[in-house]
Predict the 3D structure of the following.
Amino acid sequence: MASKPVKITDTTFRDAHQSLMATRMRTDTMAAVAEKMDKVGFFSLEMWGGATFDVCIRYLGEDPWERIRILKRHVKRTPLQMLLRGQNVVGYRNYPDDVVIRFVEKAAENGIDIFRIFDALNDVRNMETAIKTVKKVGKHAQGTICYTISPVHTIEYYVKVAKKLAELECNSICIKDMAGMLAPQPAYNLIKALKKEVGLPVHLHSHSTSGMVMMTYLRACDAGVDIIDTAFSPLAWGTSQPPVESIVAALKDTPYDPGLDMQLLYEISEYFREIREKYYDTLRLIDPKAERVDASIIIHQIPGGMFSNLLEQLKEQNALHRLKEVLEEVPKVRKELGYPPLVTPTSQLVGIQAVFNVLSGERYSIVPKEIKDYVKGFYGKPPAPINPKVRKKIIGDEKPITCRPADLLEPALDKIPEDVKPYIESEEDKLTYALFPQVALEFFKKRKAKREEAKTGISPERVAELEEVAAVSAAIATYITSIGKVKALIPRRIKGVTSPWVLAGRQSLTE
């Protein structure tokens, strides 16, 4: 057999920690090992997009754009890759074309080389603007098919979607098996069909959740897959990707041998082992349930990121004991909503509706606005018709739209409120605000406060406290003056803080 080395994309900087620990890996953690990662010879490093953007500004207090720039300084040879949710960009709803276009342009300008572009419903209309913009800026557009199992998701269906992506001049096709449900033989059959009918390089992304992924990857290699996704072993398995070390060792002395340096992989793995201990033992961010093989996923079809989010939602409601009921409810909701693939944002929609159906005691008695918008067609066209009874219960007699959802949206990039403009420092900030207005504004305010603290050495909390002390003291001074008191002694300390008059060298309130 002729040699055909398979290429490998590493997901440790993005999907691995998104799947296992709610996307909490920090930029400095990545930067410390990025140069070693660059020496491995990966096809690409997936390090941006997906949930990372939201988590950076919402929980980590980090600028996601700065993450690209920092890693680009350390990674000179390996392409940087991001996951782009088509018209959803890195959010959870459709955004206007001006936001999508400018986002892609700025991402490319900051250092993204490969854009893996998908739509949760495989509605190519929702990917077109992003793909065309990626091609325009001269970067790699990877058109993506979200893999799932249902009566409508056949090989013919996937080939049809892939051909539409090829017509948009995508550079490659990715099979995104976000739930780890792609079994070995179906993988072989699908990849063979795509290679024959479409002719573009095929990139396979999967998860270890069901326990089949190692066999699936080997069978994919037999079918001629070009690239596969892996993660370093400390952040692999479970709802994450399979370990790169094991994959490289398994393919050694085969025609598919990637030829990567096992010693270097081991050194990097040891670094991530220490990081994992920090996140697991100290910060408690890794849920043991997310690390297990769960063969029941073949039934409930829940991908890694969605599973960890469901766990968090149930924990917040003190209802973790009802996880089994929710897992059983998910496929029912999915069928009724037209078999959407369970990937962001539809995974969140189906997941939260399943949680509401279980916890409320009556199915669809509580329906979030996002589910109503989905049923109205504002997310795109579902793969199959929505159950008529469920549709009527959710939106009554209202008719769903049939046009591309973004056609109904007005440009939004330049609609920055006057009170927000003082916080906008760059074009990237405008995009961040357009995507997540409330979260972005809070992030901008904290960023400004940190800079002020760095200049003065006084924290925002202490500044507020001093202002309060000054206001109270000024009121006291005014009162004493008004009643003719003189040489009123000043307090030396107020609320544990040295009096501002003492700092000014004054001896009394009436000086």
In short: The first strand starts at residue 7 and ends at 10. The mean pLDDT is 91.
